[in-house]
Amino acid sequence: MKRFFYLFIVCWFSTSVYGQSCTISNGTNCLCADGTSNCALLPDLSISWYALENNSGGPTEYSQSGNGANDGRLRVTGLTPNTGYGPFTVRGTDYFICGSDTIYDPSRTITTCPDGSYPKNLLHQRIYSKNGNAISYIDRWAGGQTYHPTHGHNHVDDWVTFTLRTQDPNEPDTLLWPIIGYGAKIGFCLMDLSNCQSSYGACRDVQMLYGAGNILAPSLNNIPNYGMGGGAYNCSPVEQGISVGYADIYDEGLDGMWITIPPGTCNGDYWIVAQVDPLNNFLESNENNNWTAIPFTLTQQTPSGSATATILPLGSLKLCNNGTVELQASGANSYLWSNGATTQNITVSDTGKYFVSTTSQCGAAVSDTITVTKIISAVDATQNDTTCLNTSAELTASGSGVLNWYDAVSGGTQIGTGSSVYIPSLTADVTYFVENVITQSSPSQRLGPVTHQGSSYSGGTTYNGYVQFDALSDFTLQSVTTFTTYPGVRTIELRDNNGLVLADTTVNIDTGATVIGLNFAVPAGSDYELGTNEAQNQSTFGTVTPYLKRSDSGVSYPYTLSNVAELTGSPFGQDFYYYFYDWVVQSGSYTCASPRVPVTAHAMGTPNLSIVGLDTAYADTASAVVISGSPAGGTFSGDGITINGSNVTFDPSALSPGLHTITYTYADAFGCSGYTEMQVRVSEVVIDTTTGIMDEVASYIRVFPNPSNGLINVELANIAKEKVSLNLYNSLGAKIFTQVVATGTKDTYLLDLSAFPTGVYWLEAREDGGIVGKTRLIKQ
Predict the structure, then answer these.
(1) What are the C-alpha distances in Å from 199 to residues 81, 195, 240, 544?
(2) Which whole-number Å values give the CA distances from 578 to 288, 384, 543, 570, in the listed order?
(3) Which of 481, 479, 486 is nearest to 458 (CA)?
(4) Digit-coded pLDDT (tens) for 632-659
(5) Which residue from 654, 765, 653 is spatially nearest to 720, judged by alpha carbons?
(6) Backbone angles phi, psi at 15, to 5 degrees
(7) pTM score, two decimals?
(8) What is the pLDDT of residues 20-29, one digit of tens each?
(9) Among 367, 413, 626, 743, fewest CB within 10 Å belongs to which?
(10) How far apart, in Å, are the Cα atoms of 518 and each of 337, 390, 580?
């Protein structure tokens, strides 16, 4: 619980002592920052360097061991005053966040999310405005709060952060100085726990410069609108806040109020940097004064002259194609990387070996070398396919890994694996996308002490120890080494935190050092045990002890393999290491997928064909004509067709009168074939014995009398269509008369051509645009 003793050991000053009050319901005595009578009364939040340095005796440093939960911690106190013109107030809403879901709960009965976590309640920040003597407000969305069962109340999330930094004399911005240690983003229960009079010296007009700033206090009459908000905000789930001229305090003894000092940090001079509202969730009059910094000297860490340097990869050291990885050096005053960089963090994109030289309060140090490797994965070649509609197609690709086919350039559905994908019936163009996936196993790494130290065996026969460890990621424990002078059979077991055996193997262990292959698959998790089976030990040696050598000297937990595993202790304390040395660990594999490459199956339609040089009607006395197909290269078939090499002729004189079908068939380079047909009418030519005039298609049309003085009879025969157009042409070929007649009702039709001048004419009969008969007539 927050420390409320401030309320009792100092005097509370009534706002009436310093002048008439400004309230959230009466703006008569409220002042605006710009001197007007209409304005938004915004809060101004800061965090006090004075309180950070002096409250609770100042920050408390703990060494890396011997302090229980406080090992390696620097505990700090945060005091956050509001010295603006309006109160800082937040109010809970009926909206809650669980994961990515927003839940509306006006009854506010939700206690946990479906996954068991605590929901985040979305907040409104209330902004008050002065309008003459009246006060109004608006509510704006601003962050959230979470119920903390250990405290029994709601905390506004991400309220303050604390970091430990080294000063960079060449960098004027304190917030850009190198960070040595981090504190968590702390959520506060915002309340009026003190005020600028009670915590005299904590409220200042400048907090960012250590030791600077004019003190703000109601007794100094330099906090306009002091007390607006009421001075009584508390830890309510409905409304929390900080009144004007008041402050919230979170003491260093409370949860989360510490900075973690990394092991190996050197004694010396540092700066503690504190920030309030680091995510800028809340609206203030000044967003640039939300931090402060104080100097602090570490005295309980690594002494001078014992400097170490380490590299923390912020990502995988195996790069895929154009990937990069950020390498972070342990905190120091200066850095020199093997590639010439001089910053704490570098980003690399090339295969190579990297190390860093540092100087710090502890002296100079050089890190171990780490190796960055790059995998280049690419689709080497692809082959499109072009085929005919409704036939099969096959798309192919090649690559050095596994080829996966998808229906989209990203995401989508996987539709095949391998060097080709088969499409049984192509109805339209189709594009698929193929990627090449290369998988490489990570190299084996070693973990834990290599050999035993100290006395060899436990002091009695009732001890059966084991190694306790955490799996930071999935890995395979390939082998361990044991030492003994007692040969015999043991069963080695991998157990979970409930003692359940996950894997075991029974081996005959000889004297001396023995490498034992295990190949135990260990999923990510905590509190595992690697030990021996007591029943087997009892059977082999008549006691529960396995008679394997353990160490009681030189033991230094934890033994850590970064991002893979950490050996944390033993059931008999941190001074003993049991049985299993020189762990050989293989941490999964690494997969690199290339960008997807499009491969297309083109569907070819039926070729567009035509027959060139062929009419739809011929007399049976007509001469042969040369015809051709388009596009060229196909074949002709049908009556009257003669093929002589590439020369194709149609001879109507060789055919009997009637309709004949001529077919042109063609196949393109892709094997897509098609054909086109033409119907050709061949008409018999006869001589009219009465007139001596030749009718070219007399078997279908005949006129009489011919010659005529104007009235003529037209006789049609063997007409398939229901309607026929009778067209009259003069000797120049111009159509001068048309009449549509219905066939089937009669065979002879009377035409009156008396209006036309004397001369020779042609009469043509057409059905659906095709000539079915044509004859010459004479008008006298």
Answers:
(1) 10, 6, 20, 63
(2) 55, 62, 17, 7
(3) 486
(4) 999 999 999 999 988 999 999 888 777 8
(5) 765
(6) -60, -20
(7) 0.52
(8) 589 999 999 9
(9) 413
(10) 39, 56, 11
